[in-house]
Design brief:
Keywords: Membrane, Transmembrane, Transmembrane helix. Pfam families: N_methyl, T2SSG. This is Type II secretion system protein GspG C-terminal domain-containing protein. The protein is mainly alpha-helical and 138 residues long. The protein has a single domain, classed as Glycoprotein, Type 4 Pilin (2-Layer Sandwich). 50% of the residues lie in helices and 6% in strands. The chain is built from two helices and two strands; from the N terminus they run ααββ. Strand 1 and strand 2 form a beta hairpin. It is rod-shaped.
């Protein structure tokens, strides 16, 4: 009797192992689809945050460059604006060691509009001047 019970237990264990084979292809595809959907939603938020951070970084750097140009104007005799931003890194007492590139790797655009008027801006992620993604000071 004990032998039969033991054998029945072994048969049931083998049947249970046979039925627990793993996941089917359809189940795996459903899981992958759900994971891809979640990653798509998360990716939109992450990349949006990166874009906003790059724009904020460019705005801060433009403000700093504006202050450097104003300092250059006040420290030169006679007072004048630099012809280009790199001019502030030269001379006996340079105002800065280097001029940073914008967060997208392009140089900042510096435009002199007269003896005391100037503008500094970034061409933005597309690298083209005059498009709607240009970053200009507020």
């Amino acid at each position: 009797m004990k032998m039969m019970k033991r054998r029945e237990a072994m048969v049931r264990a083998a049947a249970n192992m046979k039925s627990a084979r793993g996941m089917t292809l359809v189940e795996i595809m459903i899981v992958i689809t759900i994971m891809a959907s979640i990653m798509g939603v998360v990716g939109v938020f992450v990349f949006g945050a990166i874009d906003r951070a790059n724009e904020r970084t460019a705005t801060i750097e433009i403000q700093q460059l504006n202050q450097l140009v104003n300092s250059f104007y006040l420290t030169t005799s006679p007072n004048r604006l630099p012809n280009e931003l790199e001019e502030m890194t030269q001379g006996a007492a340079p105002l800065t060691k280097d001029i940073p590139s914008d967060p997208w790797g392009s140089p900042y655009v510096y435009v002199k509009n007269g003896n005391r008027d100037f503008e500094i801006f970034s061409v933005g992620p597309d690298g083209s001047e005059g498009t709607e993604d240009d970053v200009r000071p507020e």
